[in-house]
Amino acid sequence: MKREIIKTADGSTTIHLPDWNEQYHSKHGAIQEAYHVFIKHGLYHVCHPEGVSGSHKTISILEIGFGTGLNAFITYLEAEKSNLKINYVGVEGYPVSSEEIQLLNYPSELKAEKKDLIFKKFHDISWEDKHQISNNFNVTKQQKMFDEIEDTNQYHLIYFDAFGARVQPELWTETIFKKMYNALKDKGVLVTYAAKGSVRRAMQSVGFLVEKLPGPPGKREMLRATK
User: Which helix (H) or strand (E) holds 59?
Assistant: First the structure.
């Protein structure tokens, strides 16, 4: 499938799949979307003392769709800034190529040029092994399909960043969300950019309490689900 590097509205890059008319991140702003959906309404919500999950000494995060590594990288930056301890697991069926990674501009757009080697390290480290990126941040990349996930009661937070239901509806089903529900600890949280009624109903059918929240630029709403 053809793949192109494009610039999104906030200046950050992403990968575009012309055959699907789909991007790895929002064309309205890759970095803006990542911060709004996964950091503001996910990480901050879980870490805040008044949050649903309260405060944790170490936060376990599962990312569905490791992709470009943007979500992992900004979570690492937040861990360093706020002194959070995070165990991060990113699942990806089809890893992004090293040539594509070289063309992504996240460290410069995030004004984190000094962390450029860290961003590259996320992609250079081996799959299936746990790696210590810093004193605050460990990451494990797993190359497998989302329906192969069998984790139970393991994560405080899930970043659900799969391709949209328009192009991959099989990733937004009760079957997949049941696996997500099982993978979360009690009161654990899943956040996603999606807001379709069918997605919300699939989440609710497996037991999630689902909230509609204001979406990132270009989207009216997003969803947050709590176990």
Answer: strand 59-64
CB 31 within 8 A of CB 217: no
CB 16 within 8 A of CB 3: yes
Question: Domain 29-226, what fold?
Answer: Rossmann fold (3.40.50)
Q: How confident is the model at residue 1 (pLDDT cuts 50, 70, 90)?
A: confident
Q: Where are the domains of the chain?
A: 29-226
pLDDT confidence tier of residue 56, bands split at 50, 70 and 90: low
C-alpha atoms less than 13 angstroms from C-alpha of 140 in its C-beta half-sphere:
11
Pairing of strands 22-23, 13-17: antiparallel
Helices 70-82/116-124 angle, 10° precision: 130
Q: Do the beta carbons of residue 14 and residue 30 sit within 8 Å?
A: yes
